[in-house]
Amino acid sequence: MTENTLLSVEDVVVDLPTPRGNLRAVDRVNLTVGAGQTLGVVGESGCGKTMLSRAILQLLPKKAKLSGRVMFDGQDLLQLAPEKLRKLRGRSLAVVFQDPMTSLNPVLTIGTQLIETLQEHLELDDATARKRSVELLAAVGIPAPEQRLAQYPHQLSGGMRQRVAIAIALSCEPKLLIADEPTTALDVTIQAQILDLLAREQRRRHMAMILITHDLGVVAGRTDEVAVMYAGRVVERAPTPALFKKMRMPYTEALLAALPRLDAAPHTPLPAISGRPPDPTRPLQGCSFSPRCRYAVARCQVEKPPLTAAGSREHQYACFHPIGIHAEAGA
Amino acid sequence: MLQTVQAASNEPLLAVDDLVVEYPVGAKIVHAVSGVSLQIARGETLGLVGESGCGKSTLGRAVLQLRRPTSGRVLFDGHDLTTMQGDALRQMRRRVQLIFQDPIASLNPRRKIGDIVAEPLVIAGVKDPQKREQLVHEVLSAVGLDPTLVVGRLPHEFSGGQCQRICIARALILNPEFIVCDEPVSALDVSIRAQILNLLEEMKGRFGLTLLFIAHDLAVVKAVSDRVAVMYLGRLCEVGPSEQLFARPAHPYTALLIEAIPVPDPDVRPTETVPVGEPPSPIAPPSGCRFRTRCPRADRRCSDEMPELRAVAPGQLVACHHPLI
Amino acid sequence: MATLELEVAEEAVTQPARKGRRLGMLFWAGIVWLVFVCAVAVFATVLPLPSPTDMDMLERRAPFSAEHWLGTDGLGRDELARLIYGARISLVVGVCAPVIGVVIGGALGMLAGYFRGRFESLVVGSMDVLLAFPPLILALAVTAYLGQSIFNLTLILGALSVPAFMRVARAATLTLARREFVIAAQALGATHARILLRELLPNVMLPLLAFFLLGVAVIIVVEGSLSFLGLGVPPPISSWGSMIGEGRESLDMAPRLAFLPAAAMFLTVLSFNLVGDTLRALTDPRQGAL
Predict the structure, then answer these.
(1) CA-CA distance, C148 to C140, in Å (whole number)?
(2) C or N terminus of chain C, fewer CB within 10 Å?
(3) Under an 8 A CB cutoff, do A19 and C7 touch?
(4) C57 touching B (Cβ < 8 Å)
(5) Coil, helix or strand at residue B270
(6) Long-range contacts of B4-10 (CB under 8 A, 24+ apart)
C-alpha cells in the first residue's frame, strides 16, 4: 500500500485436506509489513497463525493448497521458481521458530550450522565465515562465543539455543524476520532478554519483523501494528496503541479481559470467555466467534462479517457490532 | 457443601519442614530442592512460583510422596507422610490430590472417562456401581460438563480445557482436603485459562479445599493465591501475602520476575534493564545465596553465607542479605 | 461461574471410522488369505480330501488332475491334502510359539519397565544371555536331548522369542510409566498390580499384538527352515518346510513340489506381515492423537 511496504499478503488462503474434510487453516488473510516495522500476529492455538507464517515462507505441508499473493520486495513468492525461493529464504527472509531444540540440527555443532548458512548465502570463505560467526554469537549475547562454536545444541540451555537460532537467522542480514512464538518455551526472565535482543537487532539492522505469539503482553510494548487472528481469519488489525485502547472486536476485548493481571487483587473472578476455540474442520456459517460472543445477535450466526475499517483506514475489524462504534450509535 | 474459608486456623494443614530432594543423574547429583520449609493453613491457597528448574514441581511431588524426599518432613494434619508406607500412605492419599500440567497426558488414552473418574472410588473401596455412577455424574456436573455426553468417551475426543475439567473432577470425587495444582493452566489456551481458574476457585469454595498452586506465571498465581512463595534453584527466596508481595517485593529475584512480565498495555514500554545471564544448573548451584550470580546487589557476604528466611514486614519473609525493604 | 460445556455433543459425533480409511487393499487381501488358510487348516478333517499319507506308487509325481488337484508328490501322496495338513502344523507351531513368547516376554518386559532398578538389570541381562546363544545350535541341542516333536519344537521356539517380546513390552512400558496418567494413578493410591493391569496393560497390549503377528511370520519361516533341514517336525508329520525339503529331490522333474509349499508359506508370511504392520501403524498415532 505504501512505497516502503516490504511484505504484502493478499487474500491468502490455505486449505488442508484431512480425513475429516477440508480444513481451511487460513481464510483470505491480508496483511502488510513496512520496512523496519514490527507486526504482531496474535491468536490462540488453531487460529492459523503458524500456517500463515508457513504460507509466507512457502514451507507448507505437501498436501496443502495455497492461493493468493505474497508480495515480498516486489516479487510474488507464490510464483517464484523454487531455486530463487531457496536463495531468498535465509538470506532476505529469515525465521526463528518456537522450539530451538528441534529447529537446530542436534547432530551438528553450532559452528557448523552457522558457518554453513553463511557460506551458502554469502559465499564467504572458511576463515571469514568463522570470524563472522563469532561476531554474531557475541552480538546475540552468548558468552565465550569461540568455545560455543564447537558445542552441540543439547549442551546449551533453552535460552542459549534460541539465541543461536536468532544468530543463524540474522547471519545474512535479512530484510524480514518471522519469529514464530520465539519465547513461548522459555522462562519469563529469559523471554524478556530474547525479546529485547530481537528489538535491538531489529533497530540496528532496520529489519522488519513479524512477531507471532499468543501472548498479548508480548505484543503490547514491542510492535507497531497488531493483527488478531481467530479461526483462520484476521478479525482485527490496528496500530498497537489503537488496538489496546480502542479495540473494536469483541474477541480482542474478551481476550484482554480474560488475562489475569498483576495489578488486580487476588481472587478477583476473571471474565472468562465461554466455550472453546472453533473446530477448523467444521467452519460455522456466520462469524466464527459468535457462539462465544456476548454481543452476538441472529445476524452474526448467519453472515460472516467482512473486514471493514473504522474511522482511520489503518484500523480494521470484522464485526457487525464493533465495540465503541456500537456505543456511539446509541443502540 | 459450602464451607466458609478461614483465613488461618490454629494448626496448619500442611507443614513442610526442611525438605531436601536430591537425585543422581549419571555421576552427578541434582539438588532439586535444598531445604524448603513452609506451612499452609486450612482453607488457604499458597502460590508457589518460580522459573523452570527451580524445583517447584519436584517440591509438589515430594510433598505427596510421589518422589520420596532425601530428607525432611511433610506433616499433613499432624501425620508425617515421609515415614508412611504401603496401605497407610494409600489411605492418606485420599485426602490429598494432584492436578497436572498436561491434562491430556494425565488421562489413560485407552480408558473411558467414566472409568477414569470412577477409579478413585474403586481404589477407595466403593463397591456399589450405581453409587459410583451417581458420584461420577455429580462431580462431572460440578465441573461444568454434561455427564451423559462425557462418560462413555475417550480422552482424545476432548479438548485440553475439557480434559482439565475431567482431571479436576477426578481429583475432587473423594472429597479431598488438599490439592496440589502443578501448573494446571500453563498448557491451555489463553481464553480457556480464565475458565479453569474460575472453576478452581469455585471448587475451592464449594468443597472447602486447601491448595498449593504451582506455576511460573506470576499473574496467574496472584489471581488465585492468598500467599505466595517464590522459589529459585531449590530454595525459597520470599514468602508473603499476595497483594503485599507483588506491591513491595523484598527479594531482588521477585522484583526481577515482576519486571520481566510483559504487560498488555502499550504505554508500559518494557524496560531494557536486561536481566543478567541465565540460571545456573541445579547440579552445581552457587555457594551461599544461589541468586547471587544474577543479582545486582550481591557482595562477598552473599557468596559466603546462605541467607535464611526472616521477617521483613508483617507476614512477609525473605531470604536475602540485602533485601529491597 | 463454571461455564457449561454443551458443545461436546457436536464435537464427539464427528468421529467416523477414521480407521476404515487407513486399512488399504493389501491389508484386506492379507486378512482374506489368513482366514482362508486358517479355515482349511481347522476344517481339514471334514473336507473331502484324499488322505495325505496314502501312497500311490503308480501315480508318483503326477501332474494336476481331477483326482489330485495339485498332483502328487514323490511318494504318490496327494499334494493338496499335504499342503493343507502341512498348514496345520505350520500354523500351530507358528502361533503357539509366539504365544509363549508374548505371555512370558510381555510380562517380564512390563515388570522390568515398571519397577526398573536391579530387577530390570536382571531381566535384561538374562535376556541378553539368551540372545547370545546361536538359536539354531540351541534348538538342535534341545531336540537332541529331549527328542524331536512338535511340542518340544514349539517350546524351544517360544523360549527363543521371549527376549524380543520382552524388549517390546519394556520399551512401551518405559515410555508410558513416566506419563502423567500413571503418576495420577499412583497419586490416587492405586497398588502396583492395579496400575500394571488397568493402566499399563491396555496400552502395552497394542504394540505387543502388532509385534506378535510379525512374530508368527518369523516363526513360520524358522520352523520351515528347521524342517527343511530335517531338524524340525519329525517325519511322518510334514509341514511346509519339510515339504520343500522333500521337493528338493524332484526339482528337475517336478519343480512344483518345492514351489507349491514355498508359495503357500510366502503368502501366509506376507499376510501376517501386512496385517501386523498395519496394526502397528494404527496403534502409534492413537497415542498422540489430538
Answers:
(1) 9
(2) C
(3) no
(4) no
(5) coil
(6) B5/B43, B5/B44, B5/B204, B5/B205, B5/B208, B6/B41, B6/B42, B6/B43, B7/B41, B7/B43, B7/B44, B7/B226, B8/B41, B8/B44, B9/B41, B9/B42, B9/B43
Nearest CA in chain C to B63: C187
Spatial separation of the C-alpha atoms in residues C273 and C94, rounded to whole Å: 13
Query: Domain B12-242 falls in which CATH fold?
Result: Rossmann fold (3.40.50)
The residue count of chain A comes to 331
CB A277 within 8 A of CB A47: yes
Taking CB atoms and an 8 Å limit, are C11 and A275 in contact across chains? Answer: no
Query: Does C199 reach chain B within 8 Å, measured CB to CB?
Result: yes
Is residue A237 helix, strand or coil? Answer: strand
Domains of chain A: 5-92+172-329 (3.40.50.300)
> B59 to chain C nearest CA, in Å?
15
- Cα–Cα distance, C229 to C244 (Å, whole number): 10
Give me the helices (H) in chain A, please: 49-57, 82-88, 100-103, 110-122, 126-139, 145-148, 158-170, 188-205, 216-220, 240-245, 250-257, 298-302, 325-329
**Which residues does C45 contact at the CB level (< 8 Å), separation at least 6?**
none
Neighbouring-strand partners of residue A96: A179
DSSP states along B238-264: EEEEHHHHHHS--SHHHHHHHHHSPPS
CB–CB of C149/C234 below 8 Å?
Answer: yes
Distance CA(B142)–CA(B136), nearest Å, equals: 10
**For residue A291, what is its C-alpha cell?**
457462539
φ/ψ of residue B285, rounded to 5 = -70, 150
What are the grid coordinates assigned to A315, written together?
484500523
* Chain C contact probe: residue of B64, B99, B102, B108 with most C CBs at under 10 A: B108
Cell of C198: 488397568
Residues constituting chain C = 290
**A217-256 pLDDT tens trace:** 888 888 999 999 998 999 999 999 888 888 888 899 888 8
Of the candidates A19, A274, A279, the beta carbon closest to that of C3 is on A274
SS3 annotation, A114-153: HHHHHHHHHCCCHHHHHHHHHHHHHHCCCCCHHHHCCCCH
Q: A203, A244, A259, A263: which to substitute to probe chain B, counting the most B Cβ within 10 Å? A: A259
Q: Supply the DSSP symbol for C40.
A: H
Q: What domains, with CATH codes, occur in chain C?
A: 78-282 (1.10.3720.10)
- Interval B293-309: pLDDT, tens: 888 888 898 888 889 99
- What angle separates helix A110-122 from helix A158-170, to the nearest 10 degrees? 10
Segment C13-21 long-range contacts (CB within 8 Å, at least 24 positions apart):
C14/A20, C14/A279, C14/A281, C14/A282, C15/B157, C16/A20, C18/A19, C18/A20, C19/C282, C21/A19
Grid cell in block for residue B91: 489411605
Q: Name the residue with cell 538389570.
A: C121
Q: What is residue A267's predicted lDDT score, i.e. its pLDDT?
A: 87
Residue whose cell numbers read 489411605 = B91
- pTM metric for this prediction: 0.83
Interchain proximity B195–A273, CB inside 8 Å: yes
Contacts of A281 in chain C (CB under 8 A): 14
Q: Is the pLDDT of residue A120 over 90?
A: no
| A191 contacts B217? CB cut-off 8 A | no
Q: Which three cell numbers stand for residue C214?
A: 510379525
- The C-alpha atoms of residue C147 and residue C233 are separated, in whole angstroms, by 11
Segment B125-184, tens digit of pLDDT? 888 999 999 999 999 999 999 999 999 999 988 988 899 999 999 999 999 999 999 999
How far out from the chain centre does Cα B154 lie?
Answer: 28
- Whether ipTM > 0.85 holds is no
What is the CA angle B157-B162-B165, rounded to 5? 135
